[in-house]
Amino acid sequence: MTASRLITRAAWGARAPKKVSHDIRPGDGGVAVHHIGGSPLAITDHAQCSSLVRSVQNTHMNGEYDDIAYSFLACSHGYLFEGRGYGVRTGANGTTDANDRFYAVCALTGGTSSTYDPITTDLTEAIRTAVAGMRSLGGAGAAVVGHRDLTATECPGALYAYVRSGRFEPGTAPDPQDPPPPGQEIPWPGVLLQYPPVTVHWSARTWQQQMRTRGWTIGVDGAYGERSRRVCLAFQQEKGLTVDGVVGPETWQAAWRAPVTAPADGDTSHLDAPPWPGVLFTYPPFTRHPAVTTWQTRMRVRGWSLDADGVYGSRSREVCLAFQKEKGLTADGIVGPATWQAAWTARIT
Ligand SMILES: [Zn+2]
Ligand SMILES: [Zn+2]
Question: Peptidoglycan recognition protein family domain location, by residue (predicted)?
């Protein structure tokens, strides 16, 4: 990693710590890997990463911590943000023993088993670099563990498999040649798939494969031609996207994130709802959550007119109330477990 890939505290605008403790024996442990939390962050633009790190620090310092809790933070664009740094005790690992013996590196990703932010090659490379630095400059021992190895937590989510497979061991080969596991979203590769003329690109194959997995009849040949365009148009229509036959960022992402709906007969009653996200959508005040977009998108597919913008406001509440009345649910304007479930399982009438 070149120096320009390390973002110092001054560069990201850190607040000064309230207190610094050097009470750490990392040689008796090593490095614990974390992620930010249970909701996907969906950061595509690196310009947003510094402000996220500042907000993490503010949350920690406004709570019980002397500083941002982590030693370093890594973003999916391959940058490392300096947290407490070398030789400083962390507050992130959950127990006194774990904070005695482990540094903490945190990925700026999140999610749960149903939706994880994509784990990019740049992110895994940045974490490997952090581990190497904490060993050579910070005296860390050989262990690389997940937060959940130290205390009861789901952290670090999707990254735990990488911890277990040794992916964060410095010096292991970078992993671009490894295809992502089937069904795992990969970030939009930046090429618009369109026709005519035929777009030939590896990402056309990835998209075709994913559409096939969703149940569309489409060849997987890496050439985006007439048939691919027709599938794209039908998909965009079904999902309430801009219907232009071009796979751009929004249509690409929807191929992984939009709920799979039934074929043309419109009977979706056999579909399973995605797990309820555990957050009540209420208004007022606004509820902002990635799962709001999932619900709004689903309601659009059912024929309701509302924006899928991830913000549960007055229009979403109106739709919710009307839907609850129509389906004989408690009409309280709140999307809780029963209303969430019915958005997938109640018959479209
Ligand atoms: Zn953690
Ligand atoms: Zn970034």
Answer: 4-151
What's the predicted TM-score (pTM) here? 0.52
Q: In terms of pLDDT, which residue wins out, 186 or 230?
A: 230
Instruction: Quote the CA–CA distance of 330 and 143 in Å, as a whole number.
Output: 52
pLDDT at 283: 94
- Token pair belonging to 210: 């994913």
> Same structural domain for residues 251 and 269?
no
**Whether residue 93 sits in one domain with residue 147:** yes
The neighbouring-strand residues paired with 105 are 33, 72
Ligand 2 centroid to 231 CA: how many Å?
A: 33
Ligand 2 center from residue 76 Cα (angstroms): 6
Q: Classify the C-alpha dihedral 52-181-184-199 as positive or negative.
A: positive
Which residues make beta-bridge pairs with 199? 224
Tally the domains of the chain.
3
Q: Same structural domain for residues 92 and 52?
A: yes
One domain for residues 22 and 157:
yes
CA of 141 to the centre of ligand 2 (A): 28
Give the ligand at the shortest distance from the Cα of 37.
1
Cα of 92 to ligand 1 centre, how many Å? 6
Ligand nearest to the CA of 108: 2
Q: What domain range includes position 99?
A: 3-164
Which ligand is in closest contact with the Cα of 99?
1
Q: Are residues 275 and 246 in the same domain?
A: no
Tokens 């952290």 locate to 155
Residues 273-287: tens digit of each pLDDT: 788 888 899 999 999
Same-domain check for residues 231 and 316: no
Whether residues 127 and 105 share a domain: the answer is yes
Same domain, 67 and 116: yes
* Gap from CA of 210 to ligand 1 centroid (Å): 31
User: Per residue in 138-187, pLDDT tens?
Assistant: 999 999 999 999 999 989 998 988 888 888 988 765 544 444 555 677 77
CATH of the domain at 241: 1.10.101.10
Q: Write the pLDDT tens digit of every residue in 240-250.
A: 999 999 999 89
Nearest ligand for residue 41 CA:
2
Whether 194 maps to a domain, the answer reads no
Q: How far is CA 238 from the centre of its chain?
A: 24
